[in-house]
Amino acid sequence: MSTYDPKSLHADDFINHEEIMDTLEYAKKNKNNFALIDEILSKAKPVRNGGVLTCKGLTHREAAVLLECDDPKKVSQMIELAEEIKQEFYGNRIVLFAPLYLSNYCVNGCLYCPYHLKNKAIPRKKLTQEEIRAEVIALQDMGHKRLAIEAGEDPINNPIEYILDSIKTIYDIKHKNGAIRRINVNIAATSVEEYRMLRDAEIGTYILFQETYDRKGYEELHPTGPKSNYEYHTEAMDRAMQGGIDDVGLGVLFGLEKYKYEFVGLLMHAEHLEAVHGVGPHTISVPRVKKADDIDPSEFEGGIDDDIFTKIIACIRIAVPYTGMIISTRESEEVRKKALAMGISQISGGSRTSVGGYTEDERPHDTEQFDVSDQRSLDEVIDWLIDLGYIPSFCTACYREGRTGDRFMSLCKTGQISNCCHPNALMTLTEYMMDYASPSVKEKGMALIRKELENIPNVQVRGVAKLHIEEIMKAGKRDFRF
Ligand code: SAM
Fold this sequence. Notes:
Elements: H1 11-14, H2 17-29, H3 34-44, E1 47-49, E2 52-54, H4 60-68, H5 72-90, E3 93-103, H6 129-142, E4 146-151, H7 160-172, E5 182-186, H8 192-200, E6 206-207, H9 215-221, H10 230-234, H11 236-242, E7 248-251, H12 259-277, E8 283-285, H13 306-319, E9 324-327, H14 333-342, E10 346-348, H15 378-387, E11 391-393, H16 397-400, H17 407-413, H18 421-435, H19 439-453, H20 459-474
The structure holds S-adenosylmethionine.
């Protein structure tokens, strides 16, 4: 039998079933222990000390108590705290990205995914480098600067060389003022050697969803193919970090298995990365299983409603304050709005989840991975974000300036975020306004930029940002960053 050890490199030790069960038991026992809950909430509060902002975060046990508690007063205190942490660390900036599906060839048997090997009803498609160019030009023409590339697992059709060629093609495309400046990669678990190749190709974040942390559930949901190996999948982030990738993104596919178990597993995974590599996950994604070609979400046991879903987001925000949080167009406009306030810092916009979808006039459904709930264009999403009081950001500066791994945390702590991320958001938003926005969004956006420039605390930085924005608008210059 394995024992709980966050420092171990064995999946069953750092995602230890007994520890999760004990934690859930402890949480249940304490769900109405308001003295303890107040203590946990007070521990998690952001503290400002002589210009240094810190937040302690929570252990998986403490966070599990919050998630278990359903007292309305305490739940609204949790939500308020999540909103406060979000505001303190991320301000009102929301980073935008789009997924790019390269290939839906897949040799796995995942029961929730329409790309599974046995699905003979969907056409299989893999983009050529020429087709990738066309897709990326379409994405650049929308205004995107940051992509997440996605592919099924298939060593013959989608080997690492294909992924590396595609990354090079994407970074090399220079079309009008467009550029993809950061490529995040969401491909199946692989070896240290292949992670090193991805690192050398200058990827941003390596993203891999655990799908479920419950080993038994995992094995049932992944009956065949390389992904059926629970350890290999669960230990992937350690190999990615050994391969030199500093920024890794975790996620659970909510709706498959019991959410409380997943929540604890997710936080234990974050604690493990911190304990072994000295740095936690760069992002946590919160996908929920959706209807797709031969997939019916109601067939899984773990379905959760929108209130529980947003409560999970708030509790993650409180527990891991330095980790960015991502929500995709799997969710509706309404759910995304709530989730943004409670902790989400990155969203996708104008997404198509089919292979080759961006070059089609009509949204294609034949190769789609899942139904997209938020079907608005990127310009509509930008318009909406501005109306909600957010600054849409196309910033990709951090990793290009070498601010990866734990360096983002130090940026937060020293309060430099408002002198760095804030002007970067405004400069990249100006690029969007000049090159891609519709006339009404441009007017609204430029007014926001003028107003928000005044909120840059450092006078010198403010002056430089103003100058760069002038240069973007009047001299056609691009790609400034702090
Ligand atoms: N093939 C890679 C792997 O297995 O990790 C990653 C790419 S896959 C295209 C991206 C993610 O989509 C999966 O990790 C899964 O969580 C999610 N996904 C699959 N089927 C889904 C569905 N029906 N609804 C929502 N998300 C789904």
